[in-house]
Amino acid sequence: MWYSAKPSKMTSAEMQFVLIVEDDDDLRAVVTQTLRRAGFRCIGARDGEAALAVLDRERDRCVILLDLLMPVMSGWEFRRRQLADARIAGLPVVVMTATETLDQAAIHADDILHKPLSFAALLSTVERYVRAETTAGFDDGSGEDITVTEV
Is 134 helix (H, G, I), strand (E, B) or coil? Predict the structure, then answer.
């Protein structure tokens, strides 16, 4: 179940967790702790390869917070593979980077959080994508369009 700071009834088709893809263990822990205190379910991954493994076993919708410079599989390679997989291509991705713009980061993503992170910006960004997902239609892979609205 996806939890937000303001409880609401949600359907199984809605966002269920935040996937934090960050190789810096301390930063990943702080982001996870911050989001959990705000009521979000979080799963961490050290690199893009680990993140793809999480997405392969988890069937719930999520928002992805993505670092770019990581060992094993970079954020750029993760994003390339994510976009090539129809099951997960539509999941929103927020890049966490020190660059000023997504153009400078040379990646197609939904949003950007600048490092060092502002935790107010982190929370408001995650909330924005959770709200967008809970009211938007999306393809769950069944071949039928589903529209989710808050109850």
Answer: helix
Comparing C-alpha atoms, which of 139, 142, 144, 112 is closest to residue 128?
A: 112
3 state SS of 105: helix
Q: Please count the other Cβ atoms lying within 10 Å of the Cβ belonging to residue 151.
A: 8
- Give which of 113, 117, 121, 28 is closest to 70, Cα–Cα: 28
Per residue of the chain (151 residues), give pLDDT as tens. 222 233 223 333 455 799 999 999 999 999 999 999 999 999 999 999 999 999 999 988 899 999 999 999 999 999 999 999 999 999 999 999 988 777 877 888 999 999 999 999 999 999 998 877 655 544 444 444 333 223 2
pTM of the model: 0.78
Q: Give whole-number Cα distances, 46 to 69, 121, 127, 150, in Å.
A: 11, 22, 23, 33
Domains and CATH numbers, the chain: 15-137 (3.40.50.2300)
Q: What φ, ψ does residue 89 adopt, rounded to 5°?
A: -60, -30
DSSP state letter for 24: -
- List, in sequence order, every residue forming a beta bridge with 126; answer none if it has no partner: none
